[in-house]
Design a protein that fits this description.
The chain is α/β, with parallel strands linked by helices. The chain contains 13 helices and 15 strands. The longest helix has 15 residues. The chain is elongated, with a radius of gyration of 23 Å.
Length: 400
């Protein structure tokens, strides 16, 4: 992953085509609800403009499925970007086409043009399309720049026209500063972590983290499991999980993961106590229980003893990778486990890498984000790296 970056090329007088990840949440008034991804792109944007280049930005937003969906348009993001930087930000009426061609041709150094959502009317953006159609779209995009920059780590695991195929039709393709930072932290954690290496894996389902768990067994010293996925493992060990989230079809798989970890000498910690509720609601009755949950009750967070055990394991770590919350932290009665783990990671003398939308939300909500070494903008991409998979959007860039 030793890729050239915008520091390695002369951009003066050039027109730069940059893929960013402006897939941000918008509220009902079409205002940005969380600007993390926009802020993360600013260092690259400013660096490119400071070199005397003009800039064409492209991104997707949501899943419009090839249709024009007004509430998924990028104009609110372009307008917001205009308030953050001292530059002229223009909004294109489409992703490609004659009118966009003219706007690109007229772009002057220091100016920015934001293309419309790459998924509007372009099913050929994705990989589930005819290859010839995808190539045609990629060539249209490639015509908009002298240099291609990928700063969209959150979509680097997608072999899309705007993230990977476009590189086949441009002479110079480099990483942005965000992409560089993401790869630096995550690849380092995978290939040469400081030890002990502790992985914290949470979230709803084992099925969503199956491959990463299998991969982590080959890399880490300890795995802490929380969230809904913990109850598939507890049931696999013979515990009653009541109405807790559980994937019965994966009980054998869970047993195999536990056995593989034991054989590899990797400790897997599961919650020895839990916060159980009689309904999925912050207003429900709740109580602290052990590893067994009564029928009619569901576990919605790890308990205080488990939280302490997890914090103790984290305190010994030199590298921590965290993906997925410990419980339903959005509800205050079931947030203590996630908050406790977050505090432990912040307090540990370690390199801490936070990946995944819910984990990032929890860290931001806690106010402890400044104490983390790196907060990844790409949950899916970071998971695939941890699984040992190549990221097409990164692989396509020029090597140093």
């Amino acid at each position: 992953m030793n890729k050239k970056t915008i520091r390695d090329v002369d951009l003066k007088g050039k027109r730069v085509l940059m893929r960013v990840d402006f897939n941000v949440p918008l509220n009902d008034a079409l205002e940005i609800a969380d600007d993390t991804r926009v802020q993360a792109a600013l260092p690259s944007i400013k660096t490119i403009l400071d070199q005397g280049a003009s800039l064409v930005l492209m991104s997707h937003l949501g899943r419009p499925k090839g249709k024009v969906v007004a509430e998924m348009g990028l104009k609110p993001v372009a307008d917001y970007l205009n308030t953050l930087i001292d530059a002229d930000v223009k909004m294109a009426p489409a992703t490609v086409g004659p009118e966009v061609d003219a706007m690109v041709a007229a772009l002057q150094p220091g100016q920015i043009l934001v293309l419309e959502n790459t998924r509007f009317q372009h099913t050929e953006e994705g990989k589930k399309c005819e290859k010839d159609e995808q190539i045609t779209f990629a060539k249209q995009l490639a015509a908009y720049g002298d240099v291609y920059v990928n700063d969209a780590f959150g979509t680097a695991h997608r072999a899309h026209a705007s993230t990977a195929v476009v590189c086949d039709y441009m002479d110079t393709c480099v990483a942005g500063l965000l992409m560089e930072k993401e790869l630096e932290f995550l690849v380092q954690a995978i290939e040469a972590p400081a030890r002990p290496f502790v992985a914290i894996v949470g979230g709803a389902k084992v099925s969503g983290k199956l491959e990463v768990l299998q991969s982590l067994i080959q890399k880490v010293d300890t795995i802490l499991i929380g969230g809904g996925m913990a109850y598939t493992f507890l049931k696999a060990q013979g515990h009653n999980v009541g109405g807790s989230l559980c994937e019965d079809e994966l009980l054998d798989t869970a047993r195999k993961i536990l056995a593989a970890a034991k054989e590899a000498g990797v400790a897997i910690l599961l919650p020895v106590d839990n916060v159980a509720a009689d309904a999925f609601s912050n207003d429900a009755n709740f109580k602290i229980v052990g590893e067994d949950i009564d029928d009619g009750w569901m576990a919605l967070d790890i308990g205080p003893v488990a939280t302490k055990a997890y914090a103790d394991a984290i305190a010994t770590a030199k590298t921590v990778v965290w993906n997925g919350p410990m419980g339903c932290f959005e509800m205050s009665n079931y947030a203590a486990g996630t908050t406790g783990v977050c505090q432990a990671v912040a307090d540990a003398d370690c390199v801490s890498i936070i990946g995944g939308g819910d984990s990032v939300s929890a860290v931001n909500k806690s106010g402890l984000a400044p104490k983390m070494s790196h907060i990844s903008t790409g949950g899916g991409a970071s998971l695939e790296l941890l699984e040992g998979k190549a990221l097409p959007g990164a692989v396509a860039l020029d090597d140093k």
